[in-house]
Amino acid sequence: MTFFEHPAAPRWMPVPVGDGAPNGAAAEELVARLRGAEVFGQFKAAFELIAGVELRLAVPGNRELASRDGPHGNAFCALLAARPATAERCRACQCAAREAAGRQTRTRRCFAGLCESVVPVRMGETVVAQFEVGQVRLAPPSPAQFDRLVRRLQRWDPDVEEGRIRAGYFRTRVIEPRKYRALLRMLEGFGGYLALVSNGLVVAAAASHQPVIERAKTFVDANIGARIGLGAVARAVERTPCYFCKLFRRETGLRFTDYLTRRRIEKAKQLLLDPHARIGEAAYAAGFQSLSQFNRAFKRVMGEQPTTWREHTGLH
Fold this sequence. Notes:
By secondary structure, this protein is of the alpha+beta class. It has two domains: 24-200, no CATH class; 207-312, Arc Repressor Mutant, subunit A, CATH 1.10.10.60. It is 56% helix and 9% strand. The two termini are 26 Å apart. The model is unreliable at 1-22 (pLDDT under 50).
């Protein structure tokens, strides 16, 4: 883990996050589902209570300006984000930290001396989400530092009022570097767990109050190892394939074929928890028609091959 990047370092370039990385709407949908998971909500609440700073889960490479006031936000950054002249400079600093992270944790200091960290959530070599922590100081600020900052801000925006930003600046959370490193290591550990269970969370989140959808899921679970598809499931719930497909997507947010693939992968993962089980046997028992089809689907969803996933879970 690289803990700190100094602003005098060379300009960073984005690090590729893998050919299988979800992008666009798919990436946003995955991150939204992870944000909505109960386990993430519980961890976020505990982390913010302990650290006293906001924890965000974001799409890799996003350009959102994350500077909000609130119980765990930063009042100083929120004030700068509300002014166009300083907001763009804040955005540039945050985007540089996100791009610098790639597959590793990175911490960067902004022009105001505040630090923000980005911790990637990886499935194999694929970065599917990023934890963003900030904004904090690693040492208490001095009046001289504040005076220099005010002069810089007033060059960018002559209407900046020293009195308004002073209180927020000196209330910024200060965390001793050793403790801050420990917080980031804790995030890396939780990120590994979140990646490991992410597919299960997506499947579980595909909930619906429609009896037709729940009957379809029950049918899938009862016949997971059989050669079933959209047509067979639609017949089982007495709907046309076209109508059922639209209904399933509307109610769960997933295409039925994607749900079926993810559900089969979860079944295969359960079977692979047995260290004596062969990968091919698990694949066929979960309903995949060939080992190559299983390997492709597993890599697309989990970011790595089944053999590598087994190694990471300590089951080889």
